[in-house]
């Protein structure tokens, strides 16, 4: 997958979030005590829980799983859309399946994706099954190296998160205060930079493999094999070429997880259950 990912990044100037690299980045131990809530609060009604530390999954005894879809957009992807090399970077079939099966989900959207698809964003934001979160402005990396993505200077990281948050607030009535690192790449300084913007980094514990995955059955099998109570599953909303088979894998994922008695929820509900379980 790593090789395929690298080739695709080089060819398309695109990017993806789930290249199986979680093991290559440092996880902060415990709470990031150096962070301060210095940025403007992200309005949300009601306010979902926003832990002051990085999140990889929810409570294991919750019986819940959160399906998440990253809406990537880089300047290179934008140019490919303009030039007609990519027809669309929004696979509406994914939302069609979520709606048809009454499945909640969380969309981590880049600011550039929202700017490209403002009407779609408005429609999705009005769907009670869906909630929105922040995936940076233009999907630049918060640490280097990160799969060939351009890297933000360290002093620009907090402002990038705030920039994307402003675009979110302009298009989504009640965005969640969650953020996902482009490419998943982070270190403790990057985590502090995100927390300083008033949002919580939310990663995943299940990589679906939908990024450049061309076998929908393999994607479905991977998720059903690895997901358990509390899991956060990362997938993509972009469709081909970055995530060509997500739409085809999704029905089996939803059916299979529910058959195991797991309840599919938004990230905010998963984390609310986690907060409630704490003393
Ligand atoms: Zn991404």
UniProtKB/TrEMBL annotation:
Q: Name one GO molecular function term.
A: hydrolase activity, acting on carbon-nitrogen (but not peptide) bonds
User: Any idea where the NodB homology domain is?
Assistant: 63-265
Looking at the record, which segments are called Disordered? Answer: 25-51
Biological process terms from the Gene Ontology for this record are: carbohydrate metabolic process
What domain of life is recorded for the organism? Bacteria
Q: Which InterPro entries match?
A: Glyco_hydro/deAcase_b/a-brl (IPR011330), NODB_dom (IPR002509), Polysacc_deacetylase_ArnD (IPR050248)
Q: Where is the signal peptide?
A: 1-18
Q: Which PROSITE patterns match?
A: NODB (PS51677), PROKAR_LIPOPROTEIN (PS51257)
Q: Which SUPFAM superfamilies match?
A: Glycoside hydrolase/deacetylase
The record's keywords, sorted A to Z, are: Lipoprotein, Signal
Name of the molecule in the record: Lipoprotein
Q: What species is given as this protein's source?
A: Actinoallomurus iriomotensis
